[in-house]
Design brief:
With about 375 residues, the chain is mostly helical. The chain has one domain. It is about 70% helix and about 0% strand. The longest helix has about 35 residues. About 0% of the residues have low confidence.
């Protein structure tokens, strides 16, 4: 008597399809658990972890969320698709991407990177957005020295447009289309409770972020610290449980899209902040000590610091400039070479192109910074 096992085939197929999803969830839950353990760990390690994720949330996440909410709101309520608009832009793709990158914060550059990952813009446009962006350091410079900010943005945007056009001329995007990790967009559906909670928490976090950029110390309160830490933990939790991978569908509500993509960026930003602080704690790395080297190398060091993903080191460079410890040449070199938090989704979605675009940004950064240093 033979046994027919054909009925097991659909079950086996479902398990095969379920495995990648479970693997992704497990890989994301492990960092969340480790982060929670580090937060409650006693002593200096716990203190540094709590302060770092508070800064990551209030210095980066809230501004990324605000910028993305504006773009996604226009796309959702007014049917303005920035990616498709840029796709039809022809030669104006690069200036448009440069404008997005030049917006204070990282949200505009993230939008340009997402458009590239969806195949809507050229490689030169991505390069232009990364060159033009100054990240969240732009808010600090804008608050303290607005005329210097306008000077930096004007120079970096001009360099971005020229370099973007040159990249498209010599390295057409079609040559690298196979390098993009295109992602099948998963529709989230109805607005979720987590999205409402996340966007509500952004409001006090944004207030704390603005105070930090203006270098105004908020009252020493456990409630204030808890607000930033809670926002950071919620971000990593949303990322760990996310049904999508960085890029959301344009049919979803702006709150859902902003929550998902901001959480994705935040997870990477926290990694960068903690990596820097832990390196400082355990290895003695201190960027401020780099200003003691010969003056001729200072712009080069600032440019190399610009290669570090995230906005924390870049904010430090801007702070050193505002305190008179670094020349303008170092500031402009760092502003052009740094990609802010836009580098995180770029690495995740198209790693080879992200590295190539970062290397391209070093060329104008070196030329322009040393022109200012030597003249």
């Amino acid at each position: 008597m033979s046994t027919n096992l054909n009925y097991l085939t659909p079950i086996v197929d479902d398990l095969k399809n379920l495995y990648p999803m479970l693997k992704t969830r497990i890989n994301r839950l492990i960092p969340l658990i480790l982060l929670l353990l580090a937060i409650i760990y006693p002593g200096k390690l716990g203190d540094i972890t709590r302060i770092s994720i508070y800064d990551a949330y209030t210095q980066v996440s809230v501004f990324v969320a605000l910028t993305l909410l504006i773009f996604f709101g226009l796309e959702y309520f007014y049917r303005v698709d920035v990616g498709k608009f840029m796709h039809k832009g022809g030669i104006w793709q690069v200036p448009t991407a440069s404008f997005l990158g030049a917006l204070p914060g990282c949200g505009g550059a993230v939008v340009a990177i997402t458009a590239f990952a969806r195949g809507n813009v050229t490689l030169g446009s991505m390069v232009a957005a990364l060159i033009a962006t100054m990240g969240d350091a732009a808010f600090l410079l804008l608050a303290k020295e607005p005329m210097t900010y306008l000077k930096v943005i004007s120079i970096s945007t001009t360099a971005a447009i020229i370099c973007g056009w040159l990249v498209d001329k010599f390295h057409p995007g079609e040559l690298y289309i196979s390098e993009i990790n295109f992602i099948e967009l998963k529709v989230i559906g109805n607005l979720r409770k987590r999205d409402m909670i996340y966007m509500t928490l952004i409001i006090p976090g944004l207030g704390l972020g603005i105070l930090q950029l203006m270098q105004i110390e908020p009252p020493d309160s456990n409630v204030i610290m808890a607000t930033g830490i809670l926002g950071a933990i919620l971000s990593v939790t949303v990322w760990a449980l996310s049904p999508v991978n960085a890029v959301t569908s344009h049919t979803d509500h702006p709150f859902s899209r902003s929550t998902e993509e901001t959480s994705f960026v935040t997870a990477w930003v926290i990694v960068a902040y903690l990596a820097y602080e832990y390196s400082n704690l355990f290895l003695g790395l201190n960027l401020e000590n780099m200003i003691d080297i010969g003056w001729i190398y200072i712009p080069l060091i600032a440019i190399i610091i610009g290669f570090i993903p995230g906005c924390g080191p870049q904010i430090l460079v801007t702070t050193l400039y505002l305190n008179g410890l670094l020349p303008f040449a170092a500031l402009i070199g760092n502003a052009i070479s740094n990609d802010g938090d836009a580098l995180f989704p770029a690495i995740a979605l198209t790693p080879r192109m992200a590295i190539l675009a970062t290397l391209y940004s070093a060329i104008p950064a070196l030329i322009i910074s040393y022109i200012f240093l030597l003249t």
